[in-house]
Amino acid sequence: MDGATNSQRKPQAPKVAPNFIDNIPLLQVAANSPPASVAGAVAGCIRDYRQVYLQAIGAGAVNQAVKAVAIARGYLAPSGDEIVCIPQFHDIKIVEEERTTIRLLVQIR
């Protein structure tokens, strides 16, 4: 063990390859997504690609996505990276049904 307590460790980003839209990573967020895990993935994408989309359907998923952005801001602050979040509506088709999602573009300020 390295002697660090759980409260001292930064969560690691999940080892999941994101989808891409126009060369920007896209992370899907669900109502049951752990915000700290999503934040780790957001911070990793910001470090690697300088921007990332978070896509959420429903109030619970949007809530988790916004919490993740706030947490990711804290993860990135020590390195001097300041992020901004630009919300947008986006229509998608799921099993022949049209749904409206919230897409958050998170990028370096």
**CATH level 4 superfamily:** Alba-like domain
The quaternary organization reads as: single chain
Mean pLDDT: 88
Q: State the share of residues found in helices, binned by percent.
A: 25-40%
Looking across the biggest beta sheet, what order are the strands in? Answer: 1-2-3-5-4
Net shape: globular
Unreliable stretches (pLDDT < 50, length at least 5) are none
Pattern of helices and strands: EEHEHEE
Rg, alpha carbons? 14 Å
Task: Please state roughly what percent of the residues sit in beta strands, choosing from under 5%, 5-15%, 15-25%, 25-35%, 35-45% or over 45%.
Answer: 35-45%
Description:
The protein is an alpha+beta fold. The protein has one domain (23-108): Alba-like domain (Translation Initiation Factor IF3). Helices cover 30% and strands 36% of the residues. It has two helices and five strands. It has helices spanning 35-49, 59-76, and strands at 19-21, 24-29, 51-56, 83-94, 97-108. A five-stranded mixed beta sheet has the order 1-2-3-5-4. Helix 1 crosses helix 2 (59-76). It is globular. The termini are far apart. The model has no long low-confidence stretch (mean pLDDT 88).
Question: How would the blueprint of this fold be written?
Answer:
Elements: E1 19-21, E2 24-29, H1 35-49, E3 51-56, H2 59-76, E4 83-94, E5 97-108
Parallel strand pairs: 2-3
Antiparallel strand pairs: 1-2, 3-5, 4-5
Helix pairs in contact: 1-2
